[in-house]
Prior knowledge:
This protein is of the alpha+beta class. The chain is built from 5 helices and 13 strands. Strands 1, 2, 3, 4, 5, 6, 7, 8, 9, 10, 11, 12 and 13 form a 13-stranded antiparallel beta sheet that branches. The longest helix has 18 residues, at 28-45. The protein is globular and about 50 Å long.
Amino acid sequence: MRLTEENIGLEDIAVRASDTDRFYDATIPFFFSSSQEVAGEHATLFGMGISELSASEQKTWVIVRTRMDFARIPKWREKLTFETFPQKGYKLFCPRVVMARDEKGEPVMNAMTHWVLMDLVRKRPIPAKMVEDRFNIKYEYRFQDPDIGKIRKYEDEEKIEVFEEKTYYPNYFDIDLNKHVNNVAYIRWCCESIPDEILLGYKIATIDVQWESQTFEGEMVRVETAVTRREEGKLDLVHRIKKECDDKIVFEANSYWEEK
Length: 260
């Protein structure tokens, strides 16, 4: 990763064949995994990576929310430059922006992410002021509004079509360093719950997700997806993931699609 004079991180990432669908279009999980990778790389450069924090300070990062907007969907072998920087604290959150541009410098994706730095001993969030100081933030003119509103809850939405539920049993490769299901696994499960006819006919415009609770290895989950609007070439979906054992909600998402 390269750092600018303002401590903004830049990372070049190529879209691999394994990151694409049958049309060689980059997938939604590719953007989430890449965004979290560059966020982690940037934090590590400032001694704030998860492995360093957990080993030496008994702290860890927890991602709570991401809203991701797409200007277009890149294809296999395109080279993107991901740009990331943390902002000053917002409520309990440490907001971080992640953007992707193509080789011409044109925007591809923009994401506002909300992170919490957790004290592993006290099980409590750490004030965002600590993060501001250690990242040496210098670029307030680049800040984006961290207030992305409340996510639309699955149970509160009027549904015009409900899709077949899917169940998943988290396995060895779904578990991350914090010993729970990796954040991107939820994204993958939600995408897999969308019927093929929608994925064939529509492209993602915006996805807004909220991680509610942890899931651990061996805890089966159920994915629910429904349509809340279908008109004028646009489609709105709501998603929810619950634990099978006790119906506890672990993840909520809204996705907005446009006809290809």
